[in-house]
Amino acid sequence: MKKKLSVIVSFYNEEESIDSFVNETVKELEKIEELEYEIIFVNDNSKDGSLVKLLKHRENNNRIKIINLSRRFGPMESIMAGIQMSSGDALVNLDIDLQDPPSLILEMVKFWREENYDVVFTTRTSREGEPFIKKIISSVGYKILKRFTNIPMEKDSGDFRLISKRVIEEYKKFGEVYPFFRFVVDWIGFKRKQIFYERKSRRKGKTKHPFGLGIFFNFFEISLTPFTDAPIRFALIFGIISFITTLIIMMRTLYLFFAGVPFEEISSTSIFVAILFFGSIQSLILGVLSIYIGSIFKESKKRPLYIIDKTFGFEESIENK
To answer: Where along the chain do its domains lie?
Structure first.
C-alpha cells in the first residue's frame, strides 16, 4: 500500500509566489515513486488574489486542498490548522516563497521511508537575502534558547522539516496559545535526522514576517517563555543583587553619618545612581513577569487557536466551525 505525504503551506498575501511554488513542488513530488501526496494550503485570510489563483490550480490538480481561515491568526496557528486537517502518513512544512527548496523533499522522504526517521529537519548553511542584523539577532537568540531550555534544537534549523505520523499525532495534542512548530517538534523528540542546505533569497514579493520590535515579541513570548522559566529565575537573581547592593549603600551611609561626616559631604551621587539602578531593575522584573502573566491569561481563556471559514478539497467541507 502506498504511503501518503501531506505538504503544509501556510501563507498570507502571496499571490506572486503561488504559480512558481505549485509548479516546482508538484514536479518534485511526482518524482517520488510509490507515494501519494496532498498539498494543503492554509490561507491566513489573505487580502489579495491568492485564493482565486489557488482555486484555478485546484481545477487542474485535485490533490491541492485549501483551508481558509476566518481572519489572520498567524503562521503557527495556520500550521496547526493544516496539521489537524492532514491525512498523510508523514508531512512536510514548507514556505511558499521557495527559499526552502522543494527538491529536498525527495531526500527527506527517503530517510523517513527507508531508515525510519520520525523527524527529518533541515539546517541552513547560508541565508541569502537576509539583513546582517537579523542574522546576528537570530544567532544570539538560538544560543540563548539552547542554553536555557532543555530542547535539543540546532542553530539555523527552521520550520522546513518532515515529521512522521506518530509525531503528527503528538503535535495535535498541543493546545497552547503559541504552538511554535519547530520547537514543539524538537520537544517531542523521537528519531531525528539532520540535513543541510543553502537557503536562497525570496524570488518574488516581500516577507510577511515582522522585523524590529516584532522579532523581540516573537522571541520572548513565542519562543522563550513557553519553554523555560529562566527569565523568572533571573528576576530572582536580580532581586537578590539589588538587595545586597542596597544593604551596602545603607551601611556606607550610616557609617559616614555616625563617623561625623557632614551630611553635605555624603555623596548624593551614589544615592541618585542607586535609585536609578533599582528602578530599572524593578521595571525589568515587572516586564518579565508581565510576559508570563500575559501568557497565563491567554492560556486560561482556552480560546481556539484558529477558526476555519471554508475548505476546498476535503471530503467534508467545513464552514464557520
So the answer is: 3-206+303-312, 230-301
Q: In what order do the strands lie in the sheet with 90-93?
A: 192-199, 119-127, 157-164, 90-93, 3-11, 35-43, 64-69, 308-312
**Mean pLDDT across the stretch 165-172?**
91
With beta carbons less than 8 A apart as the criterion, state whether 311 and 318 touch: yes
CA-CA distance, 186 to 7, in Å (whole number)? 19
Task: State the CATH architecture for 3-206+303-312.
Answer: Alpha-Beta Complex (3.90)
- CB 105, CB 21: distance < 8 Å: no
4-48 tens-digit pLDDT: 999 999 999 888 889 999 999 999 998 888 899 999 999 998 888
Query: Hey, what's the cell of 150?
Result: 532543555
Q: Where are the alpha helices (DSSP H) in 149-194?
A: 165-171, 181-188
Tally of CA atoms within 13 A in the half-sphere of 233 that contains its CB: 6
